[in-house]
Write a structure and sequence with these properties.
The protein is mostly beta strands and 471 residues long. Helix content is 3%, strand content 46%. The strands form six sheets. Strands 22, 24, 25, 26, 27, 28, 29, 30, 31 and 32 form a ten-stranded antiparallel β-sheet that branches. Strands 8-9-10-11-20-17-16-14-15 form a nine-stranded antiparallel β-sheet, with helices on one face. Strand 16 and strand 17 form a beta hairpin.
Length: 471
């Protein structure tokens, strides 16, 4: 039987300022949100620059389906996230209890440079079995002089992010299921762009324009592949950027200086993409270019219990049930993923150099803000690793931990293990970091460091999450 949608906009009770939801009959399908966002999401998604963003959240694309889009911004961002139309002026709802609901959110920036009218028209397409969220992002710039200092300008008109991706960084009880592997897009010349889902592949060149009325698709989970459709000339002037952190999609509209003196109106839609279409796009997709991180095309994956055996080619999707980050040879020279020597197998992280000074393997994604289980006030970590050294000079080889703040310069001290100088067979070292973390902190860094010349092997890492009983 063909589904017949009947939409409504309702306010829930049970909280002081009740939640507002879009409904299809008795099923909630999306939530309108205008509330203060807490850390670490505030820092990661909004760079601490937008305390109370206007969003649609938890969007379903099919009756009875699960939410596929976790958030859609209903405002514009200018000048590197410094200026945004974040103040909600009004919310109008038309078409209650009909098959076509219209929601208009009017916002402005605090200084009065521009006013945004974000018009959502919600309908249902029985042919593809999908809700259609149709957005027109009207923008009236009252003071173009505040923005027009270049001949060519770009503004972010939306930064949507998906549900259930990234996959969990590490395994933990009750983790969500990893389902998706690729992003795909139709280019203006009908070729297909692809990006495998791993946190390093987001650096590959992304579309600078899109096919008119073409699709940008997340695949592949049968029956649950969300797509963005860019209508008419909006596709011509939209470039796409993919965040390496959460795979959210930055929609950048590009305009000439003179165009700021008339209203702007990008037009895009969200809907399901039929499975056959996604399969065709994946078959036709262009090869993924080489991806490197500090000169490496392949690096070991982060796991809490690891011999550094598992690795990732950086232009391929992450394997298995998790979507981990890789160990980063971030500082200094001589870092190598060793595949010929280790303590428990033939794999280890190696540093070998003749020069003085530090070289580090680092992992900064052990975190409440990096797709793991939620931290408690008392969360801490105990980390152990085995170290083997050969003629290490200087301050030696060791393990270190420190608190980290994303998007800010590091400023917290190293908590160091025993330091090994000279030649040592495999030696177990340990470091602990205890909660409560400093204010605003939601991550630790794990550092494997050799400070001085010589050769060091690191192997059999173990990371234990600590909780203080009674806190």
């Amino acid at each position: 039987m063909t589904h017949r949608a009947l939409f409504h906009f309702r306010t829930h009770g049970g909280v002081c300022a009740g939640e507002q939801w879009l409904y299809d009959r008795d099923e909630p399908i999306a939530r309108f949100e205008d509330k203060i966002i807490e850390q670490p999401e505030q820092n990661l998604r909004y760079f601490d620059g937008n305390l109370k963003p206007i969003n649609l959240r938890d969007l379903k694309l099919a009756p009875g389906g699960r939410p596929l889009i976790n958030g859609v911004q209903l405002y514009w961002v200018f000048q590197h996230k410094v200026l945004a139309t974040t103040e909600l002026i009004g919310l109008e709802v038309e078409g209650r209890e009909t098959d076509c609901l219209r929601l208009t959110a009017t916002t402005r920036d605090p200084g009065g440079v521009a006013t945004s009218r974000r018009l959502l028209t919600l309908s249902y397409d029985a042919e593809i079995g999908s809700y259609i969220y149709d957005f027109k992002a009207h923008l009236d710039i009252h003071s173009p002089e505040a923005l027009d200092l270049s001949e060519e300008l770009s503004f972010e008109y939306c930064d949507p992010w998906y549900s259930d991706i990234p996959g969990p960084t590490v395994e933990f009880p009750g983790m969500w299921k990893k389902r998706f592997t690729h992003l795909l897009a139709e280019n203006p010349d009908d070729s297909i762009w692809q990006m495998p889902l791993n946190h390093m592949a987001t650096g590959i060149p992304s579309p600078r324009a899109l096919k008119r009325d073409g699709l940008f698709v997340l695949g592949f989970d049968p029956g649950n592949n969300p797509a963005f459709e860019f209508v008419g000339e909006t596709a011509d002037r939209t470039s796409i950027g993919v965040c390496n952190w959460g795979y959210d999609i930055h929609f950048q509209g590009h305009y000439s200086r003179d165009e700021l003196y008339a209203p702007l109106c990008p037009h895009f839609r969200m809907r399901l993409c039929p499975d056959q279409k996604v399969e065709e796009m994946m078959k036709r997709a262009e090869p993924v270019p080489t991806v490197t991180l500090n000169g490496h095309e392949e690096l070991p994956l982060y796991e809490r219990h690891t011999s550094f055996e598992k690795g990732l080619r950086l232009n391929e999707p992450t394997p298995g049930d998790t979507d981990p980050w890789v160990w980063d040879p971030e500082h200094g020279e001589g870092a190598e993923w060793c595949k010929t020597e280790g303590r428990s197998d033939n794999f280890s992280l190696k540093i070998a150099k003749d020069s003085n000074g530090p070289t580090e393997w680092t992992m900064t994604r052990e975190s409440d803000g990096a797709w793991t289980e939620k931290w408690l006030y008392s969360t801490g970590f105990r980390v152990t690793v085995y170290i083997k050294t050969e003629e290490v000079q200087g301050r030696g080889a060791f393990l270190a931990l420190r608190w980290s703040v994303y998007n800010y310069p590091e400023r917290y001290p190293y908590i160091c293990s025993q330091k090994l100088v000279g030649t040592h067979d495999w030696t177990r070292v340990e470091a602990e970091i205890h909660g409560p973390p400093p204010v605003g902190i939601s991550a630790i860094s794990i550092i494997l460091r050799q400070d001085g010349s010589g050769t060091t092997y690191f192997d059999d890492l173990d990371v234990e999450v600590l909780q203080i009983e009674g806190d």
